[in-house]
Amino acid sequence: MSHVFRxxxxxxxxxxxxxxxxxxxxxERIALSQDTGALRAGAAAVDISPKQFPVNMPGGxxxxxxxxxxxxxxxxxxxxxxxxxxxxxxxxxxxxxxRQVADEARAIIVDRCGIPPHRVxxxxxxxxxxxxxxxxxxxxxxxxxxxxxIEGIAEAVVQAHQALRPAAVGAAVHPLPDEVFNRRWFLKxxxxxxxxxxxxxxxxxxxxxxxxxxxxxxxPTDPDVTxxxxxxxxxxxxxxxxxxxxxxxxxxxxxGQVSADYFGEFxxxxxxxxxxxxxxxxxxxxxxxxxxxxxxFLVTRxxxxxxxxxxxVARKTADAAWHAWRAIDQHHxxxxxxxxxxxxxxxxxxxxxxQIEYANQVxxxxxxxxxxxxxxxxxxxxxxxxxxxxxxxxxDIHLQAVRIGDFxxxxxxxxxxxxIGLDLxxxxxxxxxxxxxxxxxxxxxxxxxxxHELGGYETWLGTCRIQEDASVIITDHLLxxxxxxxxxx
Length: 489
What we know:
The chain is an alpha/beta fold. The protein is about 30% helix and about 30% strand. Helix 9 (about 420-425) packs parallel to helix 11 (about 470-485). It is globular, with a radius of gyration of 22 Å.
C-alpha cells in the first residue's frame, strides 16, 4: 500500500465510551457524552502586527527593516480541557519564539487563567517576514515589539480559556505533494562550490534549478496536511482547526513589508472552506520542514507577482485541509487529554583548533580584493565559529508531547529536518501524529547524523549548534513520552 494511500486512510479512531450521536450540518456523526468529563474547547486570535516602525525582520544574513504591514500577524490559541486537564496550543506568526519569550508569556497565563506553564505549547510559523520577537536592548520599536508578542500570546490563551464550551474533536490527513521539495541536492561533478569554511560539501542547499548542475535530492519530503478539527458541540459547527504541513515557508514578499506568509492566507481561507462562523479560529503550524521549501527544482516556474505564490500554496493547502476535514467520519466529545514536558540537556558543538584558526584568518583579512576571493558567507560563519567557541558547553531545551484521544503532537524547538518528522510519525503509538518544529524555543537546525555526513547549510557549524546525534536523542525522548501518554489508558 502506498504512503499516500495509507496517509489518506489513517483517520482518527477512538473506542466509543457511553456515547450518543447526532448529525452535524456537514452530515457527519458527532459522538457526545453525558459524563462530566466531556471535552471543552475554546479558541481565540490576537493581532500582534507591529505598531512601531522600523523593525528588523530576521531570517537572512542582512537586515530587512519593516516599514509597513501588508497582512496582519496573529497569536492564535486553542485551549482544551476536561475535569482533570487544561492545556493550551498556541501558534504565532513569527520566525521563532525564544524560550525566554514563551516562558514570560506562560507566567502571565498561569496568573490570569491558571493553566500551568508545562501545559502551554508555543509554536512559531517561521514566516521570514515578521519582526524579531526577543530584542531586549536597542531601538525602541524592536524592544516594544517583544512586549507586544508576549502580551499577545498570553491574551490569546486567556481569551480562548474564557471561551471554553462543550466540544468534540477528530483528525485526519490528506496528501499535498505538489508544493514540498527537498532543498538539499547532490550536484553533478565539479559543480559544488566551497562552503564558508573553505571545504567541499557533498550536498548544497538551494542550488538553483538547472539540469546542468543538479543530480538528485539528498532527502525525502512529507506530503501530508494533517488536521485536528474541533467542533462546537452545542452550536453544531466548526470551532477551530489546527493544521500542519512540512513546508518551511513560501516567501516572495517585497522587502520591508510585514506578512504572515502562506500561513496567514491559509487562515483567511479556512472559514470559507468550512462555512464557519465569525468565532472560528484556524491555525497552521510549521512541520518538520528544515530541509523543505517551495522551489520546484529541475522545473522553471513562471515569474510570480509579489504574494502570488503565497496565495497559490495557501489555496492548495486549504483545499487539502478541507479534504482531510471531510474525511473525518466522527468527532468525539470524550477523549483522554494529556501533555508531557521534558527538559533535556544537549552538548553545544565545539569548533576544532583548525576551525578557530581559519575563522581568525578570515576575519583578519582587510584587503577588499582578498575578501572578494573568500567563499560565500565566510565572514558570517567565521563569527559564528568564534561565538560557539565561547558558548556555554550545554543547552537545555524543552520537548513536549500532547495527547488528544488517539491523536498526538510532538513539539521540537529546532528547524527540524523532514526525516525526523517522518520517523516520529512512523514509530508513534498513536494513529495520527503531528510533528511541530520551531516550538517552545528556537535553537537553529536539527539534522540527522546521516545528513551531517553530507554537509550543507543545515549542518554547518553555526547553523546547527548542538551535538550531531541530537536528533536521535530527541526522537528517543519523544517516543518515550508518547508511550507514557498511552500508558495512561
